[in-house]
Design goal:
Shape: globular
Order of helices and strands: HHEHEHEEHEEEEEHHHEEEHEHEH
CATH topology of the largest domain: Aspartate Aminotransferase, domain 2
CATH class of the largest domain: Alpha Beta
Number of domains: 2
Structural class: alpha+beta
C-alpha cells in the first residue's frame, strides 16, 4: 500500500481563490481584508467577542504571557503531558512552568492535582485540550476563581471542541489556537487568540504589532513584537474556516473507524476516553499499549513504519526533557502514557480501507496473530 502519512492538509474551499486575490491586489503582508475577516469569523465560531491573529501558535502563547505580565519568579500551572510550546511561552518571560499529572482516561490535566501546586508565586492556570479533547473545565475554573487566578486555555489542537455545549477557548480569560499544517484547519503557519476581555485584547493587539501607537505612526509606546499574521495566511485560514464543520466531521468519521476496528482489542490498546459532556474533535487518534503487549512502543512504531504507515509517539512529559528536567516532579500517569502511547494517522483524506489496513497491521504486530 502507498505510504500513509500521519497528517495531510485538505484545501477544498476558497483557499486558492482568496490567495489569488492577495497576489492580484498586492495585499500579501500584515494588512488586508482577510485578516480582519478571519479574526471576526473565528471569534464568532468560538463564541467570543474578540479574536487576534498571530504568525503561529507558539507566539499566541507568548503574547498571552506578556499581556498577563508574567515575570521572573512567577509560576504558571500546566499539564506535564503537552507540546513544549506551552512551557516555553512561560520561560520566554522568565517564569516557571509548574507541571501537573494527567488523568489516565482522558490524558488531560488532572484537576484534583492543581490546588496543591498553588502558592504566592502562582499567576495563572493553563489547561491544554490535548489532542482535541476538552479538559474538565468546571473544577479548573472553580479552583481558579477561589484563588483569584486567570485561566488561559491552550486549545492549539482543539478547534471546535466543546465542553458542556460550549466551545473551548471561551471559558477562561483567553484561549489560544494553532493553524500549523497538521491541525484540523490550517493557514500553513498561524495562530489565533480569542477573548471577551476588551482591555486584555487591546493590550495583545498593541504588543503583537511592535507596540506602535494607534494615534501616531512609527511612534512606539512599549517594547513590542512582530507577531502579525499575513493577509495570505489569513486568506488560507478563512477558506479553511468556511469548511470547518466538514473538517471536524471527517476527523470524527476516522475516529469512529478506529473504534470499530480496534474495539475488540482493549486488552492490547486503549484509546483516549470521550466523556459524555465533551465533544472530541480528534486532532489525533491515539492508542496506549497495554501490559499484554510485550513489545515496547518504539518497536511497534518501527514495525508499523515497515508497513508504510507513519506513526508518532505521544508528547514526552515536560519534566523529563532537558530544558525542564526535574527529578522532583512526580507525574507517573503522564510518564506511563508517554512511554506507551502512539498517535495514529488521523487526517481527513483517510479512507475506510486505509484505516482498516492500519488497524490490521497494528493488531498483527501487537498480538502476534
Amino acid at each position: 500500500m502507498k505510504r500513509i502519512s500521519i497528517a495531510n492538509p485538505v484545501f477544498n474551499g476558497n483557499e486558492k481563490k482568496y490567495l489569488d486575490e492577495c497576489i492580484d491586489t498586492g495585499w500579501v503582508s500584515a494588512n488586508g481584508r482577510f485578516i480582519n475577516e478571519f479574526e471576526k469569523k473565528f471569534a464568532e465560531f468560538c463564541g467570543t467577542k474578540y479574536a487576534i491573529s498571530c504568525s503561529n501558535g507558539t507566539v499566541t502563547l507568548h503574547l498571552l504571557m506578556l499581556a498577563l505580565g508574567i515575570r521572573p519568579g512567577d509560576e504558571v500551572i500546566m499539564p506535564d503531558l503537552t507540546y513544549i510550546a506551552t512551557a516555553n511561552a512561560v520561560r520566554y518571560c522568565g517564569g516557571k512552568p509548574v507541571f501537573i499529572d494527567s488523568r489516565k482516561d482522558t490524558f488531560n490535566m488532572d484537576p484534583a492535582k492543581i490546588e496543591e501546586k498553588i502558592n504566592v508565586h502562582t499567576k495563572a492556570i493553563m489547561p491544554v485540550h490535548l489532542y482535541g479533547l476538552p479538559c474538565d473545565m468546571d473544577p479548573i475554573l472553580e479552583i481558579a476563581a477561589r484563588h483569584g487566578l486567570p485561566v488561559i486555555e491552550d486549545a492549539a489542537e482543539a478547534h471546535g471542541a466543546e465542553y458542556k455545549g460550549r466551545k473551548v477557548g471561551s471559558f477562561g480569560l483567553a484561549g489560544s489556537f494553532s493553524f500549523f499544517g497538521n491541525k484540523i484547519i490550517t493557514s500553513g503557519e498561524g495562530g489565533m487568540i480569542v477573548t471577551d476581555d476588551e482591555v486584555f485584547y487591546q493590550r495583545m493587539k498593541l504588543l503583537k504589532g511592535q507596540a506602535v501607537s494607534p494615534e501616531k505612526k512609527y511612534w512606539h509606546i512599549d517594547v513590542g513584537y512582530n507577531y502579525r499574521m499575513t493577509n495570505m495566511q489569513a486568506a488560507v485560514g478563512l477558506g479553511q474556516l468556511e469548511n470547518v464543520e466538514w473538517h471536524i466531521g471527517q476527523r470524527k468519521r476516522v475516529a469512529d473507524l478506529y473504534k470499530k476496528f480496534l474495539g475488540d482489542y482493549t486488552d492490547y490498546v486503549l484509546m483516549q476516553a470521550e466523556p459524555e459532556d465533551c465533544k472530541h474533535v480528534y486532532w489525533m487518534n491515539n492508542v496506549i499499549l497495554q501490559d499484554k503487549v510485550t513489545k515496547n512502543r518504539d518497536q511497534v512504531m518501527q514495525q508499523m513504519e515497515e508497513c508504510n504507515i507513519e506513526m508518532r509517539p505521544l508528547f514526552y512529559p515536560m519534566h523529563i526533557m532537558p530544558p525542564y528536567y526535574d527529578t522532583n516532579v512526580e507525574c507517573p500517569v503522564a510518564e506511563k502514557l508517554a512511554a506507551r502511547g502512539i498517535s495514529l494517522p488521523s487526517h481527513a483524506l483517510l479512507t475506510e480501507e486505509n484505516v482498516r489496513y492500519i488497524c490490521e497491521c497494528l493488531i498483527r504486530i501487537i498480538t502476534g496473530e
